Amino acid sequence: MIVFDQVTKVYSTGNTILDNVSFHIKEGEFVVLTGASGAGKTSIGRLLIRDLLPTSGSITIEGADLAKLKPGQLPDLRRKVGVVFQDYKIIPDKTVFENIALALEIINYPGKQIADRVHHLLDLVGIPEKDNLFPIQLSGGELQRAAIARAIVSEPKILFADEPTGNLDDATAKDIYQLLLEIHNLGTTVIMSTHNEKFLPGHRHIHLEKGKIVGDSATSAHPKKHNEQRAMKNDK
Amino acid sequence: MINTALKNIRRSPYQALAAVSMTGLTVFVVSLFALVSLASQLILTSFETKPQVIAYLADEHKPEEVNQLIGDLTTTGLVKQATYVSKDEALKIYKESVGNDPLLLGTVTDLGIITADVLPASVEITAKSPDNFPTLVSILERSKIVSSTPNGQKEIDFPQDVISELTAWTRAIRTAGLILASILSFNSVITIMIIISMKIANRRYEIGTMKLLGAKGAFIIKPYLIESILYGAVGGVIGWLASYIALLYSTPFLATRLVGIIPLPVDPLIMLALLAVLVVSFSSLGLFSGLLAAVRFLKR
Asked: Taking chain B, what is the end-to-end CA distance rounded to the nearest angstrom?
């Protein structure tokens, strides 16, 4: 479904953020991306919605080469890939309801059904009573839930959640993770970037370091093993 | 979409006020010039349809001599109409023009009641063009039946320069109105465009987020285009209303001076037609301004 083939991204400053990255994510997978800050996790998300173009290599989603998409096809791609942004990107002067409804208005969802759909999503993410509040009135966890609700309200095939549990306490982080599992169980392909290794078990795990994949549990290179080897080297 | 546009307007009322007042002023001026232009055209038409050259005849003229004169004039091909006005008809015309004023009718003066004998018969000529006046006047001057003043000058009235002057004034008013309306319309376009550009720039974060969520350009710019159209339409209504009030206020003054030339007060249907034209034109102008701003943004 998603194919990164030898993708390299070099910024105009000369900083290489992804270096020859290749992976293949199948439909319905739950993939956890790990790596330190600056490893390239967010860039993968931005490349997925063509907010960035690769310097070399190719990215295809459902067979479509993202670099070859015409500007008019970009909205269709972005409707296919829901993103929970690290900084939430919740519009500050719209209420929670309006923020989520916006994603539906963008896809021309029938006007009369928008309210029902938004309230259903608010129930699903666990903030049903927060619909008329503005983002500034929400806690970090509530904002994260609102961002998730907006990302999935239009039923995208793919969900990229960029550090959805960062800056949250353990209990809230666990709730958010459970929520992503529920979304995955509904059939959505989920890619979650995180620092939190608690969420690794049972999922495919891709580990990035300085823009390179140093481990992928779907291939022979096991990220956990790599980490252990690296730790041993450091000890020596 | 309309709700979003209205919300945008509510969020920055002073910007909206600037856009509407600029458009309103433009429409006010355009509306006034349209009315003045229409009035000047009516005045010109009125002058053109009235007899332009009047030759007063000596009392001893004979009907065949009059027919000969009219024949001489019409064979030139420069005359639209040439008619004989007898003394009795002249009195009738005079009475119609002065109404029941006893002073002008002579009923309260020592001169006695004005009768047909006092007034001369005449030949009234409507020329095809004011340029033909000299030729027609030369024919009249050669005629023996046209009366002369004691110093030998033929009694011929012809407002040689009035119509050409009026035509020139009408053209000048139209040109001035067109130039002023163009300048003001340009200012309106720039004002709306700058306001919409500022709004788009201020909402860059929101627009960027909408793009990331898969919004198409048309979805993003539609509320701004609606807002621009609203500025044009509301400005159009306000400007028209102001010009209508100005017209109604000046109607009593104008009515006494333009009696028989322009029917006053102006027919409300004409004003409604003007409103429709202005609202459609300035809504389009607003849309054009909004598009200019939006296209600049979409190109980025």
From this structure: 23
Name residues of chain B where pLDDT drops below 50: none
Q: Does A87 touch chain B (CB under 8 A)?
A: no
User: Could you tell me which chain B residue has the CA closest to the CA of A88?
Assistant: B209
Q: Give the Cα separation of B55 and B143 in Å (integer).
A: 10
Is the Cβ–Cβ distance between B57 and B105 less than 8 Å?
A: no
Which pLDDT band, with edges at 50, 70 and 90, does A198 fall under? confident
The closest alpha carbon to A196, from A40, A32, A83, belongs to: A32
Q: In a mutagenesis test of the B interface, which of A77, A102, A158 is the best target, namely the one with the most B β-carbons within 10 Å? A: A102
For A34-84, give the DSSP string: EE-TTSSHHHHHHHHTTSS--SEEEEEETTEEGGG--GGGHHHHHHHEEEE
- For B16, B278, B284, the CA distances from B192, given in Å and listed in that order, are 9, 17, 12
pLDDT category at A93 given cuts 50, 70, 90 is confident
Query: 10 Å Cβ neighbour count for B122?
Result: 26
Residue A211 gets the label, from left (phi > 0), alpha (psi -120 to 50) or beta, of left
What is the ipTM metric for this complex? Answer: 0.86
In sequence order, what are the residues at sequence separation of 6 or more whose Cβ sits closer than 8 angstroms to the Cβ of residue A119? Answer: A128, A131
Q: What angle do CA B113, B114, B115 make, to 5 degrees?
A: 110
**How large a percentage of chain B has pLDDT more than 90?**
29
Question: Nearest CB to A91: which of B206, B215, B216?
Answer: B206
- Condensed to tens digits (0 to 9), the pLDDT of residues A6-35 reads 999 998 898 999 999 999 999 999 999 998
User: Touching check for A85 and chain B: CB below 8 Å?
Assistant: yes
Instruction: Collect all residues of chain A within an 8 Å Cβ-Cβ radius of residue B205.
Output: 91
Q: Do B131 and B47 form a contact (C-beta atoms < 8 A)?
A: no
Identity at A138, one-letter amino acid code: L
User: Chain A to chain B, count of Cβ pairs less than 8 Å apart?
Assistant: 35
